[in-house]
Amino acid sequence: MKLTFLGTGTSHGVPVIACDCAVCKSKDPHDKRSRSAAYIEISDNSSSKFILIDIGPDFREQALRENIRQIDAVLLTHSHADHLHGIDDLRTFSCIMSNKPENPQNEKYDKPPIPIYTNHTAAEHIKYSFSYLFSEHAEGGGHAKINLKEAKSPFELCGIKVTPIPMEHGSLETTGWLLTETTPDGKKSIAYLTDCNRISDESINLLQKNAGLSEGGRLVHLVIDGLRIKEHSTHFNFLQALEAAGKIGGEHIWLTHLTHNSSHDETAAYIEEHLPDFPSLASAKSVLPAYDTLVLET
Prior knowledge:
Elements: E1 2-7, E2 37-43, E3 48-53, H1 59-66, E4 73-75, H2 81-84, E5 96-97, E6 107-108, E7 114-118, H3 120-129, E8 146-150, E9 155-157, E10 160-169, E11 172-183, E12 186-193, H4 201-210, E13 218-225, H5 238-248, E14 252-256, H6 264-274, E15 286-289, E16 295-297
Parallel strand pairs: 3-4, 4-7, 7-8, 12-13, 13-14, 14-15
Antiparallel strand pairs: 1-2, 1-16, 2-3, 5-6, 9-10, 10-11, 11-12
């Protein structure tokens, strides 16, 4: 299983429009952060399946950059614009494109609908705000074909087990995603937990149970919301993210959904400085900020 960070930035993205701060003017590619999303590849000996986590307004550029050509399902954390408003760009994946040079624009919108899994609150928002996705397309065009599903319990998808993890993002319900593959060496998991400022003990227990941690399963990568140094009303700050990560576990910890308040290098240095304050993270192999295009493998 492989995860590519399509974006690791907060809702503004980095650089922020009209901002002249040092981070926004940085030449370091690690400081260029598009809106947060991830792309998962699950491969066996004969084929590969691909799962997208969130589809924000930067998705078109992210897909072109990473040469994304297939999406078999979408896991949506919540319905805020920076995680949802690229949904129209699923249209390309709803049609069969001709690759013949003599007819490059031949399109047929007859692929099966793309399943989108999310929580009840986000599903209701999509039905209201993107109602046209559930009707016949207008003459002369097409729109994404989706199959909206509310995820309340673990399910099988593309050959792996997917567990929705309830979280809180201020007063909004959000969903983290635990992705677990069973290999000859046992269970290996990636947890993707963004846009939250509280993960209950019940949700942590749910994650650990479905990752099989008490039975020798490995949480290879934990991706967790870590906005900035200063506290925020709806996101973990860096120290809160480290505290939550210490409770959850994970061999490699990655902070995502980062602002322009700290550069990549400054964030990494801040984490290193404060790691001794979290002895529960002593066994982690790495604790670092993620960045766009970073690839993780289990």
